[in-house]
Amino acid sequence: MTMKPGPKYSAAVLWTLMILGFALVPVLMSSSYQLNLASHVLVWGLFAVAFNMLWGVTGMLSFGQALYYGLGAYFVGLMVEYLGSAWYLPAIGIGMLAVAATSFLLGLLVIRVGGVYFTMLTLAFGQLAWQITFKWYDFTGGDDGIQGITAPGFLQNPIAYYYFLLVLVMLSMWILKRMAYSPFGLMLRCVRQNPERVRFLGRRVRRNQLRVYIVSSLFAGLAGSLMAGIDNSIHTDMFFWTTSGEVILMSVLGGLNQFFGPFVGAVAIIIIEDIVGAWTEYWSLIIGSLIMGMVILFPKGLVGELHHLKLRMMQLKARRSE
Amino acid sequence: MDFSFFITQAISGMTMATLLFLVASGLTLIFGVGNVFNFAHGSFYMVGAYFGYQLVAIWELNFWIALVLAGLGAGLVGMLAESLFLRRIYGRVNEGGFQILLTYCLILIIDDLVKLIWGTEYKSLPRPKGFSGAVTFGDIYLPSYNLLIIAIGVVVVVASWWILTRTRPGKIARAAAVDREMVDTLGVNVPLTMTLVFGIATALGGMAGALAAPLRTVTPGAGIEVIIDSLIVVVLGGMGNFWGAWLGAILVGEVNAFAVAFVPKWASLFSFLVMVIVLIFKPEGLFSPRQVRKV
Prior knowledge:
The structure holds two protein chains of two kinds.
Chain A: H1 7-28, H2 32-57, H3 66-83, H4 88-110, H5 115-135, H6 137-140, H7 158-180, H8 183-193, H9 195-200, H10 205-230, H11 241-254, H12 261-279, H13 283-297, H14 301-321
Chain B: H1 3-34, H2 41-58, H3 63-84, H4 95-118, E1 134-137, E2 140-143, H5 144-166, H6 168-178, H7 180-185, H8 190-212, H9 222-237, H10 242-262, H11 268-281
Helix pairs in contact in B: 1-5, 1-8, 1-9, 1-10, 2-3, 2-4, 2-8, 2-9, 3-8, 5-6, 6-8, 9-10, 9-11, 10-11
């Protein structure tokens, strides 16, 4: 907020650079592998930013957002599988409605308990969904997942799909950013910092928590349904607890208190995963140690520490010019 | 349903309950004393199982010695993890989230180390000598190893009760749970107490892992399954409530055993169902005093 040219201007520059950077990927990169990587970054980035609305902004650490991510993906996958690929786009919408309904009902339940309980309950429900998907072989394909999910019409072209993805992801991020800095977003920060005072002000803590839970889940669901079209397949792992863990790691790596922190974390983790995964299968050992060091030594995350450094430099400069 | 079938299922449920209790009691103890949620607790169970496998199947040690050593080994790993990593984030703003994160990293690290050392294939352990058969009463057939586990569970319950209520270290631990600073002021080394509690709790978890190894296969993914079941137990009993954990474990174990008998495919859903019902009607846990509801 203390940037020199005024926050509006620099934010616009940031958005332009980000959108331009991603828009140029299909032009500059020739291989489909890099396009695929960029698509993964976009989807995971959206998922992580949506997750951070819960944790970084409102202070609710959910370990079960994979439930909604998987739900979004399976709505698309199952509808395309049983009804045909014309249902691809409607399935995204229907999936989001289903996510909204599910997160409303589950939210009523899990928000009754706070802190660690909330985290563990969301984990338990996520694993429940995973188990159902895993065991209901006749309907969901169980461990085999669903292959051959193709988008209709011109979206079959990977580059067209990539731009479709880019537009939806950026639009969602913009909505989330507007929301994070709206009066509603301020209320969420108050809920994190001092729920008692929120009550004294006559606002409802649980109702706001439920709202942000639904919003975050909605975009997690959207991310999942978009993912179905990237690899043209979905798998029960999308419901698994490690998927929920992944966005937590991304948020911490990038920085919890910055809106774009989780997005940067998603970029970093996917790139590290790509590099490390090429030469060892013990990739979670490495990322686990990395994040552990991060939590102990640099709890602000990449973007947060950079921001902090910038502030320090500016203070130093101001002191020198005095 | 005849009587012998009922007894067999009940014993199988009690076996699961005992193993769950050994893990969940440690979880609830750490939470009660140090207000730490050890998400990696299931990984110590897994470490104990692998230690048991290493000692019995590879080094061919006596099962009973191996059981004790596996527990001690897991406890040692737990104490190291607590004093090297967890201790550094106590008292930080938003500590709860960071605890979960740090212990999540521990899961990632321990799971991969286990794969690195022992490989990803399933391991199994033979039952100890003298406990491979079954005890029969008329037409009731009871595996003697299961009875042994239940007996060990009863011993642990009684011993824990005695330590927590009748001995000085137990009283210190309980006092630290109520008011950490006051205990500190009285000259007790609270950080050391916390490390010891962590060690005892993870040792119990590790012992459960080694005990369970002959019944279940030993796999790198065992930790997360156990932590979720233990979590359900702890939610049922009330977080930090030692006796609640015991009763919660029995409830989950029995529900599971009978669900397996009637609807094997969907058995694992029933304990979730119990948890959901409890959460709707008494979110503070079945066996904890009812709290004043906030508006």
